[in-house]
């Protein structure tokens, strides 16, 4: 690991572990559509993050849990570029015998 960056995503979490030729983004989300500064929309923040790390070829994403303040930026980035991350690691969600997730009911 070369260094760690903590991009500001307003009210959510985003941690980026940078290596020489790769990165691991841990969570990337926000709870609001705008930062405290109402002039700057959140989509601009995630576009900045996406552009900042696009020169790095090996980009992985790790989601710690399924809350909006950890997930929304990931959804925004992958909507704009579905191949942005080379690997995505998601937490396991248990399902019952009918295939329903009791946690999400």
Give a brief rundown of this model.
The chain has helices spanning 42-53, 68-80; strands at residues 3-5, 14-18, 22-28, 58-62, 87-89. With 105 residues, the protein is of the alpha/beta class.
Task: Supply the key terms.
single chain, 105 residues, alpha/beta, 2 helices, 22% strand, globular
Task: Characterise the protein shown here.
By secondary structure, the protein is an alpha/beta fold. Helix content is 24%, strand content 22%. The chain has 2 helices and 5 strands; from the N terminus they run βββαβαβ. It has helices at 42-53, 68-80, and strands at 3-5, 14-18, 22-28, 58-62, 87-89. A 5-stranded mixed beta sheet has the order 1-2-3-4-5. Helix 1 crosses helix 2 (68-80). The chain is globular.
Topology:
Blueprint: E1 3-5, E2 14-18, E3 22-28, H1 42-53, E4 58-62, H2 68-80, E5 87-89
Query: Reading side by side through the largest sheet, how are the strands ordered?
Result: 1-2-3-4-5
Structural class estimated from helices and strands: alpha/beta
Assess the beta-strand content as a share of residues: 15-25%
N-to-C CA distance:
39 Å
Largest sheet: 5 strands, mixed
Mean pLDDT value = 85
SSE pattern, N- to C-terminal = EEEHEHE
State the shape: globular
Task: Please mark out the parts with pLDDT under 50 across 5 or more consecutive residues, or reply none.
Answer: none
Radius of gyration equals 15 Å
């Amino acid at each position: 690991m070369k260094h760690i960056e903590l991009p500001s995503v307003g009210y959510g979490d985003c941690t980026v572990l940078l290596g020489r030729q790769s990165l691991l983004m841990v969570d990337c989300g926000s709870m609001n559509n705008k930062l405290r500064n109402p002039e700057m929309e959140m989509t601009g923040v995630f576009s900045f993050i996406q552009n900042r790390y696009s020169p790095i070829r090996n980009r992985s994403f790790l989601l710690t849990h399924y809350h909006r303040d950890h997930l929304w930026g990931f959804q925004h980035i992958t909507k704009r570029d579905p191949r942005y991350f080379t690997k995505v690691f998601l937490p396991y969600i248990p399902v019952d015998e009918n295939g329903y997730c009791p946690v999400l009911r």
